[in-house]
Model the fold of this input.
Amino acid sequence: MDISTEELLDIYHTMQKIRLFESKVRDLAMAGEIPGFVHVSIGEEASAAGVCAALRTTDRITSTHRGHGHLIAKGGRLDKMMAEIFGKRTGYCKGKGGSMHIVDYSLGILGANGIVGGGLPIATGSGLAAVIAGKDDVTASFFGDGASNEGTFHESLNLAAVWKLPVIFVCENNGFGEFTPMETVTSVKDIAVRAQAYGIPGHIVDGNDVLEVLRYTSEAVARARAGEGPTLLECKTYRWEGHVVGEQAFLGEGAYRAKSEIEAWKLKCPLIRFEKWCAENGKISSAELKKIVADTEKELADAIEFARASELPDAAEVTDDVYA
Ligand SMILES: Cc1ncc(C[n+]2csc(CCOP(=O)(O)OP(=O)(O)O)c2C)c(N)n1
Done:
């Protein structure tokens, strides 16, 4: 695949932003500084970064409850995201939405979504809107393996296929829905085969290989822009952390997965894999990669300072901007 050094640097920057942002969010939530529930996608950075690297600003995405990575990859600002997660007025939703409701229409981010499977019909509608408007923008919809068992998945794929809508359905299969192993509640081993039922292409993708994700997404985007309809991508990956930050069930007695399984997946870290690829292919020096890490740490420290220094919304504003 033809890819410039600048694009490679951007991809690495995105993955580092996600990793460092979410590690910090996890630590701040554990320390009690962040209110509400937060779900992190540490270990799954390559799917968000690879998919969004194939999109342009006018393309759109829908996200999930585990959405920080998608939003960052589509250009979401760390300061406004952090302020939102802190519940501050300077946040994306004036501090009233929190982690699961971050939206930025100007970047094509149609929203994180606390409803499992909730983003799929929105993406289908967004695809239809682009067609009606005569634009060749595409919409990528991120969702989990659990969401692929919801009715919205099947309805959305069917309609998008029938109307040949420019939508890329991106299943991030991390092996679990909350504390339930995927194989105990899912009729197929590979979500990608479900594409056959709707007559569209479906591909299994190594979700920890950002360049493979980019390659498959670029093909799906070209197909969608050409009016040939939707594609289903299944990015196989793994979440390193609990379902929700603070979850105690993941390693203690009665655990739903073994510590050794998590350790085995950590060896397949998407960032380390990308660093190795750069070294082996003489693409980017380790000094350049280290500079990106240092720059990202600074960006993140500024975002936290911004969030901490911002005001909480006033109680009198509690029903402002509330539509339902
Ligand atoms: C419609 C709906 N049903 C159930 C829930 C509770 N819930 C929140 S996250 C989750 C698991 C989702 O699993 P998956 O789609 O695989 O995403 P992952 O958490 O693995 O990223 C469930 C059942 C919900 N938020 N919405």
